[in-house]
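Milestone 3.1: sequence recovery, worked example.
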């Protein structure tokens, strides 16, 4: 049935476009997944785009429902409200790199459409400006843009729209046709696409979304004949080229064509076409034999300055970096070998959540054209650095392989590699339990991976965070899911320690003298006192002021005999529904470790 065309770009047009785009991606999803050959054959670009738009649809529907409930006789929501909802929904629901880029395209459009919050609608000129800003902002969000990707298709759409004059229908059709022509040219711009005989998968998805925009304003999907058959699922038959079976003809196994890196030839699973590096060479022209092991995605609450530093940090850690968003909320996507370091970088920048870590070698794929060997159930182990004999026993009882870190004697990377080997597992979760061991643990993880062991590094900064992670560890769960759950548990645990100062020094709480009792919260000195029990109580009160459900106390050999009883009584009397668990840590350096979950 033909769609009733919209004349102007208003809130109803936003709603209609989102609905039609979701339907178009639903029809084309399997086709887009099947041509996902760049940077590696991960086969999920169509799925990721669909899930991203699905989130945008839900957000727009919520705005319409809220408006109807609060102002039932006031017509429809403002264009600005609907456009912002579309962008926000896509941002928080973005999946994969293709979805992240699409979210930024929608955000760029929304910034123009919502610039004047009082305007009920915009015309063809406004749509042109929105498409231009969308393409430019998406390109700016990618660390190393390369032509022949979804960014190229978006820019071509904006260029074609700029050259068109007329109403929204005219501009939308021009943008669609410009994108279609650019999509057809992508195999000539990226050698990996040409070898596989396919167009860029991310660009193919964008063409489907733009086809839905045309249908919004004309009432008919482009390429659809009177019988309802589509020339190419909304992409236009001439946009595709003859291609061999994905995963067989393209022995390189590249990903999906969103365009980040080429030449990740022999991997059997990656993300979805991240527009950073093109062809079979990196941005600097060097051949790239392999790619990072993990895709890391998370939402991040942080300010602009922190995000600028985060970009530089993640760019040094890995590739396929795309950071989109603004106004304090960002969606971060990167490919790295050290997933823990990527998450830790987010923690240092702000508050990361909805963390998703995907290992490219095994699982989390949706391929339809490639045959993969059945995944054999892997033996998994946890390797943890612990600061005392007591905790070493606790961790060992929980099934972990431990490396003892004696006071003043941190383990070397070689010791951690030996522990990973000793674990005799194909999959290993590594818990350094000390912020100062991050680089040592990363080096150990890299060496173990070179030996064929699948290693995930979770950036635990304290043994109490490691305890929280170990408590939710489930060996029968998929590896990436287990790592995400453990990472989330560790990240949700605030940590503190009570120590005795060895010398006079400056701290964030003032000047301390040798012999003073220091209370450190999340690594920083927060309290300077003279008594261990009093200082510990002050630290605990400060931590619980932010809420909590479980307090973990780890007592060192030098802890006062009654400190645990005193703190347990304090929690029992002052904080309802908060439980306390106490462990003996032995000779651990700190007098007391405190964790609050």
């Amino acid at each position: 049935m033909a769609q009733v065309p919209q004349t102007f770009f208003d809130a109803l047009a936003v709603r209609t476009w989102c609905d039609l785009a979701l339907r178009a991606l639903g029809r084309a999803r399997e086709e887009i997944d099947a041509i996902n050959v760049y940077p590696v054959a991960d086969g999920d670009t169509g799925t990721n785009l669909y899930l991203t738009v699905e989130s945008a649809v839900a957000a727009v529907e919520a705005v319409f429902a809220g408006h109807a409930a609060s102002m039932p006789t006031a017509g429809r929501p403002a264009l600005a409200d609907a456009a912002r909802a579309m962008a926000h929904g896509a941002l928080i629901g973005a999946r994969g790199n293709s979805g992240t880029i699409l979210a930024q395209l929608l955000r760029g459009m929304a910034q123009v459409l919502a610039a004047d919050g009082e305007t009920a609608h915009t015309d063809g000129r406004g749509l042109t400006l929105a498409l231009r800003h969308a393409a430019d902002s998406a390109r700016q969000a990618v660390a190393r843009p390369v032509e022949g990707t979804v960014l190229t298709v978006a820019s071509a759409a904006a260029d074609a729209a700029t050259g068109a004059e007329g109403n929204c229908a005219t501009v939308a059709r021009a943008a669609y046709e410009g994108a279609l022509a650019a999509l057809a040219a992508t195999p000539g711009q990226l050698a990996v696409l040409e070898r596989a005989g396919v167009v860029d998968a991310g660009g193919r998805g964008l063409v489907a979304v733009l086809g839905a925009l045309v249908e919004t304003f004309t009432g008919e999907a482009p390429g659809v004949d009177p019988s309802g058959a589509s020339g190419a699922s909304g992409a236009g038959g001439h946009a595709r080229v003859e291609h061999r079976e994905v995963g067989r003809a393209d022995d390189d196994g590249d990903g999906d064509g969103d365009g980040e890196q080429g030449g990740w030839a022999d991997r059997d699973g990656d993300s979805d076409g991240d527009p950073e590096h093109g062809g079979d060479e990196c941005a600097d022209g060097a051949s790239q034999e392999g790619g990072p092991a993990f895709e890391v995605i998370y939402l991040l609450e942080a300010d602009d300055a922190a995000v600028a530093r985060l970009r530089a940090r993640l760019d040094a850690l890995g590739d396929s970096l795309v950071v989109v968003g603004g106004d304090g909320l960002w969606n971060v996507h990167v490919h790295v070998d050290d997933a823990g370091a990527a998450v830790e970088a987010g923690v240092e920048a702000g508050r990361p959540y909805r963390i998703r870590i995907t290992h490219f070698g095994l699982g989390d794929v949706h391929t339809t054209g490639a045959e993969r060997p059945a995944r054999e159930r892997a033996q998994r182990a946890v390797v943890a650095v612990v600061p005392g004999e007591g905790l070493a026993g606790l961790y060992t009882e929980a099934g972990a392989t431990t490396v003892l870190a004696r006071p003043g004697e941190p383990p070397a990377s070689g010791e951690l590699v030996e522990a990973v080997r000793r674990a005799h597992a194909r999959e290993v979760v590594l818990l350094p339990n000390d912020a100062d061991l991050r680089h040592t643990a990363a080096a150990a993880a890299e060496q173990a991976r070179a030996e064929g062991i699948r290693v995930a590094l979770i950036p635990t900064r304290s043994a109490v965070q490691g305890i929280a992670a170990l408590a939710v560890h489930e060996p029968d769960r998929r590896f990436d899911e287990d790592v995400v759950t453990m990472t989330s548990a560790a990240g949700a645990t605030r940590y503190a320690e009570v120590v005795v100062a060895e010398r006079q020094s400056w701290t964030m709480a003032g000047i301390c003298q040798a012999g003073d009792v220091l209370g450190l919260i999340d690594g920083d000195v927060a309290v300077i006192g003279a008594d261990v029990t009093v200082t510990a109580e002050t630290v605990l009160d400060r931590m619980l002021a932010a809420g909590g459900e479980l307090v973990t106390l780890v007592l060192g050999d030098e802890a006062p005999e009654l400190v645990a009883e005193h703190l347990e009584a304090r929690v029992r009397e002052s904080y309802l529904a908060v439980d306390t668990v106490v462990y003996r840590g032995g000779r651990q350096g700190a007098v007391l470790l405190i964790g609050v979950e």
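Confidence is low (pLDDT under 50) at residues 224-289, 362-378. The longest helix spans residues 45-70.
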